[in-house]
Amino acid sequence: MKEFFAMGGYAFYVWMSFGLTFIVMATIAINSMLQRKRAVALVKRKAQLNKNSDVVAGK
Question: Are the CB atoms for 18 and 25 separated by under 8 Å?
Fold first, then answer.
């Protein structure tokens, strides 16, 4: 098991690349979730404004 984690002397580079990849993928996932949340909120706001403008216009 120790030999597996040592990666033939390249452990630092291998585990750093895994760590960096994980950080980048997590950042992308979190950013995507936040953008989706903002987009849904924007659509709801626009729908509410549209609904209110229809009421004001007497439709």
Answer: no
Handedness of CA 47, 48, 53, 56 (dihedral sign): positive
Q: Which two tokens stand for residue 52?
A: 């209110």
pTM: 0.70
Please give the Cα distance from 3 to 18 (Å, whole number). Answer: 17
Residue 28, both tokens? 């992308």
pLDDT tens for each residue of 12-54: 999 999 999 999 999 999 999 999 999 999 999 999 988 887 6
